[in-house]
């Protein structure tokens, strides 16, 4: 069983989550092409970005809490 995360692990986790959230915000608010054939992108862009963000944050939490080899 892994030991409890140290302050260094928590800091690293918080920084990575903030950076990932910033990147997700930039991708979710990126301007869309004005070509009519790309209208479906507006319905897929934000849900896809949010899904990837949630998966990435989940991976960060698992790495922080359960793996001793995690070194930021």
Describe this structure in words.
The protein has 72 residues and is mainly alpha-helical. The chain has one domain (7-66). It contains two helices and no strands. Helix 1 runs antiparallel to helix 2. The longest helix is centred in the C-terminal third of the chain and has 27 residues, at 40-66. The radius of gyration is 16 Å and the shape is elongated. The two termini are 19 Å apart.
Outline the fold blueprint.
Layout lengths: L6 H22 L11 H27 L6
Helix pairs in contact: 1-2
Major sheet details: none
The proportion of residues in beta strands is under 5%
Order of helices and strands: HH
- Helix content, binned percent: 55-70%
What descriptive keywords fit this protein?
mainly alpha; 2 helices; 68% helix; 72 residues
Please sum up the structure shown:
This protein has 72 residues and is mainly α. It is built from 2 helices and no strands. It is 68% helix and 0% strand.
């Amino acid at each position: 069983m892994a030991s409890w995360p140290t302050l260094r692990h928590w800091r690293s986790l918080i920084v990575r989550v903030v950076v990932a959230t910033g990147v997700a915000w930039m991708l979710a608010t990126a301007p869309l092409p004005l070509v009519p054939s790309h209208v479906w992108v507006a319905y897929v862009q934000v849900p896809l970005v949010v899904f990837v963000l949630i998966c990435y944050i989940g991976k960060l939490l698992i790495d922080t809490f359960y793996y001793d080899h995690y070194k930021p």
